[in-house]
Amino acid sequence: MSRLSALNARLRFLYREIAKFGIVGIAGIGVNLVVFNLLRNVTNLQTVRSSVVATAVAIAFNYVGFRYFTYRDRDRGGRGKEMGLFTFFSVIGLVIENGILYGATYGMGWDGPLANNFFKFAGIGVATLFRFWSYRTWVFRSLPAQAVEQAEAILSDAERQQRVNIARSAE
């Protein structure tokens, strides 16, 4: 495989990964915003507390989506470690997301439904960049290149054997 075709393959893979991450992320944003606004309007929780609860619910939702949709082809060994790292990086994202909302609400005095949702969404955006990098780098790790090469070799051998069997049956 030439370097250009290898680069093309990697870019296509990255594009698919970003698209899948985005699908789960958009659904998670929906869960986050719905829970946030329900808590703000139905309970007496303060703005940032409502946001923290909503973010925690969205984190649980997103883990399931990432593990079984976006990164289902990734190494599944060490599920406990994976969940621990996911939680660790998600909590950092939670702090980023809600730190922005906290700064706007209590630091700048921008408290109201429109301002809260705007800065909640802005915080989600900044935290999403961090989460994408950390999840793909540390949590949902790719299989080692050696394992991929071995799998490709096995598939090549199987295809070659299938061609030999077809040729024998044609005789």
* Assembly state (oligomeric): single chain
Residue-averaged pLDDT, rounded? 86
Number of structural units classed as domains: 2
Strand content: under 5%
- What is the H/E string? HHHHH
Protein name: Integral membrane protein
Membrane topology: Multi-pass membrane protein
Main location: membrane
Keywords: Membrane, Transmembrane, Transmembrane helix
How would you describe the overall organization of this protein?
The longest helix is centred in the first third of the chain and has 40 residues. The mean pLDDT is 86. Helix content is 85%, strand content 0%. It folds into 2 domains: 138 residues, no CATH class; 27 residues. The chain is mainly α.
SSE map:
Layout lengths: L2 H40 L4 H24 L8 H29 L5 H27 L5 H26 L1
Helix pairs in contact: 1-2, 1-4, 2-3, 3-4
Brief overview, please?
The protein is an all-alpha fold and 171 residues long. Helix content is 85%, strand content 0%.
